[in-house]
Amino acid sequence: MKSIIKTITLIILASLIFNSCSSTPKITDIADIIGTEWILTEIKTKPQNIVLNRNNSEMKEIFTIRIDADRLSGIGAPNRYTAPYKFGENQAITVQAVAATLMAPIQEPSNLKESDYFTYLQNAYKWNSSQTKLQLYTKNANGVGTILIYSRGSTN
Q1: What's the CA gap between 63 and 60, in Å, rounded?
Q2: Cys-Cys link to 81, which of 34, 59, 100, 138 (CB 3.0-4.6 A)?
Q3: Which stretch of DSSP H or E encloses residue 71?
Q4: pTM flag (> 0.90)
Q5: What digits encode the pLDDT tens for the residues 44-53?
Q6: In 10 A of CB 63, how many CB atoms?
Q7: Do 96 and 122 contact (CB within 8 A), yes or no?
Q8: Which residues of 42-53 are buried (b: 16+ CB within 10 A; e: fewer)?
């Protein structure tokens, strides 16, 4: 009996040590992503990924998302938007229709149109997160699998 207890204790200790060594622990608790502003930095899609140059002045304050208790919101390019959403089991997310202000863009990034961004949001079906990144798994207008990758912005 003592050897079984020792074996179980060693397995638990090894598991704790192994899990504490991971460099970017995944967040699976919804509360850890709510109330944080996230800034879109990359879109993994086909035929080629889109990397947003945040050093470029036209990209500084656009394509953001903030997830609150029952709504997500943010800034497109240049419109503010909001949409109701629901979390489901196994990190599922369902986003309803995006409502946005109707300002005309003075300058819109060539590699990502605001309407495409809103389509990505409305087609989101799963989320994943680490301490510094949020990923929304989605599809583009043609049904091609896409991942929106956000970096952590500010917390209020």
Answers
A1: 9
A2: 100
A3: strand 71-75
A4: no
A5: 998 889 998 7
A6: 23
A7: yes
A8: bbebeeeebebe
Nearest residue to 66 via CA among 41, 29, 37, 87: 37
Residue among 29, 43, 8 at smallest CA distance from 87: 29
Range 64-102 burial, b when 16+ CB lie within 10 A, else e? bbbbeeeebbbbbbbbebebebeeeeebebebeebebee
Question: Burial, 14: exposed, middle or buried (Cβ in 10 Å; 0-12, 13-18, 19+)?
Answer: exposed
Tell me the per-residue pLDDT of 111-142, one tens digit each, with 9 for 90 and over. 899 999 999 999 999 999 987 899 999 998 88
Smallest CA-to-CA distance from 140 within 44, 1, 22, 2 is with 44
Instruction: Indicate the domain borders of the chain.
Output: 27-103+111-155
